[in-house]
């Protein structure tokens, strides 16, 4: 953990993180996402502008994103639980597989370079952008959810890919559930609960993975920056309603295309940096 609190380093970092929280909250409100897909590329860009080394930037962006998602995913989980919109059978069956996948992702992150993590995020963002822009829907495979071991393996994959991207896993878990005949509202509610299973062990895993690493910003616990978490959560929550207002001026299809174009831009920018 680094606690270098010199004003010359701390003030620009705090200001940049505040701006990041506001931007991510606005975009999250517009596009209806948990924030991870927005936070990771913006934090990576901010850290690059502030001169932090490439070897820690993407790790920090992903770990910090998971830290920010912890309270927001828990809040969403409790709200959906009150509405009885969670498939408890699926949730119970993923209590071990999803955190197991998250743990594997934390280990992979610990031994991966920033370039490798950036390439992974870029590829997954690119695929998701195509899905949104071209309105590609996963076909319904069955009217029944698969049992063991298929469901357990799916949980591991959801946890692994989510933790590698720094997202709550809503898109992945919702796609899986709707492929097997579950109603969309049930899939959304369960996805919020899955976000808790991803975010908490994910944040802890990235803390452990980055413990003692040199070159981290002030107030970093491993690859989770506590200053970023403290600054970004209230600002993103405060700004999100303005994004929601903008969203209500657009159709669902316009939102999908807009978010797809955002992800495509992120993927291309990250791809360009890989060859810079």
Q: What does this molecule look like?
A:
The chain is mainly alpha-helical and about 280 residues long. The chain has one domain. It is built from eleven helices and two strands. It has helices spanning about 5-30, 35-50, 55-80, 90-95, 95-110, 115-135, 150-165, 170-180, 185-210, 225-245, 250-275, and strands at about 220, 225. It has a two-stranded antiparallel sheet. Strand 1 and strand 2 form a beta hairpin. Helix 1 runs parallel beside helix 10 (about 225-245). It is globular. The two termini are about 30 Å apart. Mean pLDDT is about 85; it is low at about 1-5.
The total beta strand count reads: 2
Helix tally equals 11
The tally of domains stands at 1
Helix fraction by DSSP (H/I, runs of at least 4)? over 70%
Uncertain runs with pLDDT below 50, 5 residues or more? Answer: 1-5
Organism: Propylenella binzhouense
Family: Belongs to the 4-toluene sulfonate uptake permease (TSUP) (TC 2.A.102) family.
Protein name: Probable membrane transporter protein
Keywords: Cell membrane, Membrane, Transmembrane, Transmembrane helix
Descriptive key words:
276 residues, mainly alpha, 11 helices, 2 strands, 75% helix, disordered N terminus, cell membrane, Probable membrane transporter protein
């Amino acid at each position: 953990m680094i606690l270098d609190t010199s004003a010359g380093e701390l003030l620009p970092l705090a200001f940049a993180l505040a701006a990041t929280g506001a931007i991510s909250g606005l975009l999250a409100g517009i596009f209806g996402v948990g924030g991870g897909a927005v936070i990771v590329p913006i934090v990576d860009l901010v850290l690059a502008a502030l001169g932090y080394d490439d070897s820690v930037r993407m790790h920090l962006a992903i770990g910090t994103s998971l830290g920010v998602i912890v309270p927001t995913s828990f809040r969403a989980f409790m709200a959906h639980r009150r509405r009885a919109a969670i498939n408890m059978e699926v949730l119970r069956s993923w209590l071990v597989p999803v955190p197991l996948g998250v743990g594997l992702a934390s280990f992979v992150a610990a031994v991966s370079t920033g370039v490798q993590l950036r390439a992974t995020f870029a590829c997954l963002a690119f695929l998701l952008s195509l899905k949104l822009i071209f309105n590609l829907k996963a076909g319904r495979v069955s009217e029944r959810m698969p049992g063991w071991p298929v469901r357990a393996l799916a949980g591991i994959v959801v946890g692994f890919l989510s933790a590698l991207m720094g997202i709550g896993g809503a898109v992945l878990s919702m796609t899986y559930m709707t492929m097997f005949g579950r109603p969309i509202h049930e899939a959304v509610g369960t996805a919020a609960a899955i976000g808790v299973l991803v975010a908490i062990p994910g944040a802890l895993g990235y803390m452990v993975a980055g413990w003692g690493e040199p070159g981290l910003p002030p107030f970093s616990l491993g690859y989770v920056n506590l200053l970023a978490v403290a600054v970004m959560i209230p600002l993103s929550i405060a700004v999100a309603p303005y994004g929601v207002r903008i969203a209500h001026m657009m159709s669902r299809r316009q939102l999908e295309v807009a978010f797809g174009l955002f992800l495509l831009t992120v993927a291309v920018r990250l791809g360009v940096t890989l060859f810079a």
